[in-house]
Amino acid sequence: MKSLAALLLFCLAFVLGSVATVQAEEVSPAPSVSTPAPAPAPSIAPGTDPATATRAWLDTVPPDKRAKSNAYFEGGYWLILWNFLLGAAIAIFLLNSRISARMRDFAERTTRFKAMQVAIYAIGYLLLTSLLSFPLLVYERFFREHKYGLATQTFGAWFSEQLTGLAVGLVGTTILLIALFAVFRRAPRMWWLWGAAVVGFFLAVGVMIAPLYIEPLFNKYKPLSDARINESILVMARANQIPVTQVFEVDASRQTNRISANVAGFLGTTRIALNDNLLKRCTLPEIRSVMAHEMGHYVLNHITKLLINFTLVALVSFALAKIFFEAAVRRWGGRWDVRGIADPAGLPLLAVIFAAISFVLTPVNNTITRVAEVEADAFGLNTAREPDGFAQVALKLGEYRKLDPTPVEEFVFFDHPSGRARIRMAMDWKAANLPAGGAE
User: Fold this and answer.
1) Neighbour order of strands in the sheet with 271-275
2) What is the DSSP string of 157-219?
3) 270 pLDDT band (50/70/90 cuts)?
4) Average pLDDT, stretch 365-392?
5) pLDDT of residue 372
6) 382 phi and psi, to 5 degrees?
7) Mean per-residue pLDDT for 119-134?
8) CB 49 within 8 A of CB 298
9) What's the average model confidence in pLDDT over 337-353?
10) pLDDT in tens, 273-304
């Protein structure tokens, strides 16, 4: 669904959980997990300054692995562009060919109810755009992931999950579009303001329902069976007033070998979960550092803050979209047979405008998330008190995220701090001589 036009990307992706999970980073678990041996740590003399210590940690990564990680992550820069261009090309094709208008006409002939007309149009639009964008999707999400050794699924299993995601997307996006076009019909002048409010509402609903109803469609969640790890996590949760009594394990290894965890949901749907890769690949200090980071998102109210921030981004985006949409309809509406904002046939135009806005706001959106991640990192270090474990995890995440980017790269493309920035924070914390957790 990522390569659909940006209105759907902007709204649906967040609704289906990208804000809800506030994940650390980016999958049949064993009945019990033995803690792996810690990876070799650099030899750092006591009193070494944090900058030198950070460099020593980074130098433990072999050049070939560093090059592979850099190539993977830098390839993502281009994919941002290709997804934007493909979405724009699809939207322009649907408008210029009048396929969008014919889909609208079909919906109007089928029923006189406006909401049903939007639903019929939305389903056809989603299916068609998904089909047209599938070649890039399969390269980006399947072949590329296997090329870099990050995926574990067969094509059949992967495709089955894509169909499940499409089904969820059809339901969620259709409901969203029905609500948006109802606003467009009833508020032809202020649709941008009420449209942003609708998106904010759907974001909040998505955050609440994703942990309970959406994520279990793709992975199995079960109580963590390792009592030692479970209690170590719950001790930190109790100390920070997080209302959970159980930690869940996710069978993510059947999809990927990335490590991940999250404290997801709010308003009574809070859940702590970690994937089985984290259990298989990380020591207890590393697990504690990851889970303490995730708890930071909850304690620091990042879910609520991100909802507010991205709703404000939506407000700005809708305000800009109004200007560009109305100008485009005045100039080309007759050629496309688009009547106005309340006309479903104008959805591709609205989508390409949102795609352009989202593309330009890439640094803004990434910075909003990255700031929250930095705050959660600081909270995690103070809670787990595992600076070396934190540094080890940063190196593991560096398998698919560039460890030492330029400042401009980090500002524009990173929605999490770089490995270098995270290790430096850990070494700064360690140099302050705060008592650290016991080594495993």
Assistant:
1) 221-223, 247-250, 271-275, 261-264
2) HHHHHHHHHHHHHHHHHHHHHHHHHHHHHH-TTTHHHHHHHHHHHHHHHHHHHIIIIIGGGTS
3) confident
4) 96
5) 96
6) -70, -25
7) 97
8) no
9) 97
10) 999 999 999 999 999 999 999 999 999 999 89
Rounded to an integer, the average pLDDT of 405-429 is 97
pLDDT at 22: 36
Of 345, 433, 278, 389, nearest in space to 96 by CA: 345
For residue 191, give Cα distances in angstroms to 156, 183, 185, 213, 241. Answer: 42, 6, 8, 30, 41
Angle, helices 63-96 vs 99-110, to 10°: value is 60
222 close to 249: Cβ distance less than 8 angstroms = yes
Q: CB burial class (10 A; 0-12, 13-18, 19+) of residue 330? A: exposed
Domain ranges of the chain: 6-25+49-431
H or E element, residue 117: helix 114-138
Ramachandran category for residue 17: left, alpha or beta (phi over 0 → left; psi -120 to 50 → alpha): left
CA distances for 430 relative to 48, 209, 388, 423, angstroms: 10, 39, 9, 10
Q: Please give the structure tokens belonging to residue 332.
A: 């080309």
Helix, strand or coil for residue 406? Answer: coil
Interatomic CA distance for residues 88 and 149, integer angstroms:
31
Q: What is the crossing angle of helices 191-209 and 155-186, to 10°?
A: 140
DSSP string, 15-82: IIIIHHH--S------SS-PPPPPPPPP---TT--HHHHHHHHHTTS-HHHHHHHHHHHHHHHHHHHH
Dump pLDDT digits (tens) for 45-56.
Answer: 788 899 999 999
User: Which residue bears the tokens 């072999």?
Assistant: 62
Spatial separation of the C-alpha atoms in residues 291 and 275, rounded to whole Å: 11
How, if at all, do strands 221-223 and 261-264 pair? unpaired
- Total-model pTM: 0.87
Those residues with Cβ within 8 angstroms of residue 142's Cβ, 6 or more apart along the chain or in another chain: 151, 153, 155, 158
Could you read off the pLDDT of 208-240 as tens digits, one per residue? 888 888 999 999 999 999 999 999 999 999 999
Query: In this structure, are residues 236 and 42 in contact, taking their beta carbons and an 8 Å threshold?
Result: no
Q: Using the 8-state DSSP alphabet, how is residue 254 labeled? A: G
C-alpha–C-alpha distance, residues 342 and 68, integer Å: 48
400's tokens: 């698919």
Say what the pLDDT of residue 208 is. 85
